[in-house]
Amino acid sequence: MRPALKVAVVGAGIAGASCAHALSHSGHAVQVFDKSRGAGGRMATRRAEWVDRQGRSQLSRFDHGAPCFTAHEPSFQQFVSDAVGQAWLAPWQPRLAPQSLPLPHDGPHYLATPDMPALCRQLLDGIDAHWSCSVSGLRREQGLWLLEQGQGVAAEGFDAVVLAMPPIQAAALLEQHQMDWAARAAAIPMQPCWTLMGVTKASALPHAWDLARPASGALAWIMRNDARPARDVVPGQAHWVVHASAHWSSSHLEQDAAQVQSDLQAALVDHLGEPIDWLYATVHRWRYAMPDRSASAQAEPCWWDAAQGLGVCGDFFTGSGVEGAWLSGRSLASVVALNDGQ
Predict the structure, then answer these.
(1) Is 264 domain-assigned?
(2) ∠ CA(159), CA(160), CA(163), 5° rounding?
(3) Is 144 helix (H, G, I), strand (E, B) or coil?
(4) pTM
């Protein structure tokens, strides 16, 4: 019987959560570290508190990260089927707007319930997790890994470290230990995405569709968040999530957030062809939203250096979103689990 390893997983998105879950179920001692306040990564839901025109406090939630995903690989299909049975996931059949581009993938589409991070939370249930912990460096001493945070130590004594984060961020942690990986990771293109979230009066808005994918212009995805399964519906309100295109986001990457918000609100008005009565709005910049599928896919599903006990996983290995991230995390866990601790 192979000895259990003490493993640090840095990153609690779907790749890290998938890897940590599989390693834990294989009997390894896993700890997860993430710079955010909770799990999910780009499977994200924003919780927004705002005050309406009557001075009443309102709470709205917006799925402002990955809109949905599909399942094609058999092991992921089985995972999704089991997750639907446990009410972790729900099928979603969006009504597409007229003249909308088709969805990028065939087959049933799914989203996590009651919010997008819930799937990662379920996978990490029972696993020791450290939130608001930004790992700034890795150090190897006497055959074990130490995680640095700022000028201090976040944790130490690990047999293995898994990096599950955007490749450019992984590159900074790899430089002192795997120069080839660091160079390859730094060269992997990731596309940004500015996202508009807002609440409007519902009366002036169309009800015939809940998802639009414009063929041109600044906007790539327009979603009625309140039309998605298990999401809050507030009478008289419509909840919107609008993703700008990768090209537009790149061109406006460093623009002031207030100007980006104004521009995206105007673009939505233009698309709908009628005025909008905004009750609340904000924007979020995803600097590393998604891999460039035309240039990011790697020959392998993950990286693993058994001699050092160092691994990397993420959706950039396949360029296939949530499914690819899950498969990459599981692939790395399978390789790590074969390590004999030597």
Answers:
(1) no
(2) 155
(3) strand
(4) 0.94
Chain-centre distance for alpha carbon 174:
21
Of 267, 234, 231, 235, residue with least CA distance to 249: 267
Dist. CA 112–CA 108, nearest whole Å: 14
pLDDT for residue 312 is more than 80 = yes
Q: What is the pLDDT of residues 195-211, one digit of tens each?
A: 999 999 986 555 689 99
Q: Which two tokens stand for residue 94?
A: 């969006």
Does residue 150 sit within a domain? yes
C-alpha distance from residue 312 to each of 140, 143, 222, 335 (Å) = 16, 19, 33, 11
CATH of the domain at 299: 3.50.50.60
How many whole angstroms separate alpha carbon 335 and alpha carbon 333? 5
DSSP category for residue 246 = H
Of the candidates 288, 193, 272, the residue with the CA atom closest to the CA atom of residue 240: 272
Residues 132-164: b if buried by 16+ CB within 10 A, e if exposed: ebebeebeeeeeebbbbbeeeebbeebbbbbbb
Residue 24 lies inside a defined structural domain of this protein:
yes
- CB distance 240 to 200 below 8 Å: yes
Name beta bridge partners: 129.
32
164-166-170 Cα angle (round to 5): 70
Helix (H) or strand (E) holding 221: strand 219-224
CB 299 within 8 A of CB 308: no
Given a contact cutoff of 8 angstroms between Cβ atoms, the answer to whether 238 and 222 are in contact is no
Residue with tokens 């986001």: 249
The range of the structural domain enclosing residue 168 comes to: 1-43+117-188+294-342
Question: What is the pairing mode between strands 211-212 and 152-158?
Answer: unpaired
In a domain? residue 287 = no
Distance CA 302, CA 289 (A): 19
Q: What's the total number of domains in the chain?
A: 1
Q: Rounded to whole angstroms, how far apart are CA atoms 189 and 49? A: 34
Largest CA distance in the chain: 67
pLDDT digits (tens, 9 = 90+) for 18-64: 999 999 999 999 999 999 999 999 999 999 999 999 999 999 999 99
